Amino acid sequence: MTTPDDTPAARPAEPYRPAVPAVATPAAEPDRATPPPPGTAPVEPATDAAPAPPVEPVEPVEPAETRMSTGPTGEGPTLRPARDGAGPADVTAPSRELRTALAGVRGEVGKAVVGQDSAVTSLLIALLCSGHVLLEGVPGVAKTLLVRALGASLDLATKRVQFTPDLMPGDVTGSLVYDARTAEFSFREGPVFTNLLLADEINRTPPKTQASLLEAMEERQVSVDGVPRPLPSPFVVIATQNPVEHEGTYPLPEAQLDRFLLKVVLPVPDRDHEIEVLARHAAGFDPRDLAAAGVHAVAGEDVLARARAEVRRVQVAPEVLGYAVDVCRATRQSPSLSLGVSPRGATALLATSRAWAWLSGRSYVTPDDVKALAHPTLRHRVQLRPEAELEGVTAESVLSSVLASVPVPR
């Protein structure tokens, strides 16, 4: 993935800052709240295993002011501390406080997981956009632990479902139960009635059970016996899957993949991070006991709601809107793809770019924001032609070619 340089994300001379908002949604003025200071991240586990997105180690986040910068190619953004004087003049104090609170979430997750800053930032973007995330990685790279640590650092209801071949749709959504004492049926809620749902190994359950999440993910409701039942807000599904084992698995259909806002790939950690993992375990770290590791909730629903309100106020110039559309339309014309990015994918790219710009401390989107989020937002929305796969072409290489070929607005 092509990523922008790690330079101050917003300064008055920024060429793409629109004078008049082209896309802006009014929101209530956020309340001020003093966020807890972000912790310095210790290390990670080996049950759900060692971490590692392709991101360089980052410095500890200072509590005063935070900003974001993209990680290396292909794996999305990484949270970094702001430099003195680098904050944009138009970002208000409440925004800095909210960004600091979310930086604290990264610090708490870092107490359990090593080297996953890029993945944690992607999860924060999904929370700001009320979108869902598909985590993909080989066994033992801390996919499940990462989600558990995120849930422990947020004051949100979190539930986990282990998807298996015999799991039924009612086991996820809930079902009607007959009460012999009253001679009536009553609805018993399933684990989907929560704020943060971990769908572990989602590709190990049959399509009918996978499809039970479609309505919940898109409409934020579950219909049982013809009665729609709204889900709590916020509602985010974080699903994990293993890319190497195909026996006994059921690949997600394109219609369901398109419901995921981001697809985050977690590779095997580098040597230094793996040494850090072993050092933490040698010191007695237990990945099953996150409380003992010091992970605690530092943000809640109110922080996310106020942050989402500010994200909706992020401005997008017409030229940047056109650039995002051109990137998505170019995938539909690629000879290597049988399926390009849909209009839903274009709106997802806009949403993630606005969240990334806000996390970077800016109130406007630049083409670099679109480039930074193109890979994680679009990689699962394209389908390669069989002949292209035989030639070794990948979705990542196609997206890189598209980003290199589409003219950037000046």
Automatic annotation (TrEMBL):
Residues 9-28, 41-50 have a biased composition (Low complexity). Residues 1-93 are annotated as: Disordered. Pfam families: AAA_3, AAA_lid_2. InterPro entries: AAA+_ATPase, ATPase_AAA-3, CbbQ/NirQ/NorQ/GpvN, ChlI/MoxR_AAA_lid, P-loop_NTPase. Residues 129-270 form the AAA+ ATPase domain. This is MoxR family ATPase. The lineage of its organism: Bacteria, Bacillati, Actinomycetota, Actinomycetes, Micrococcales.
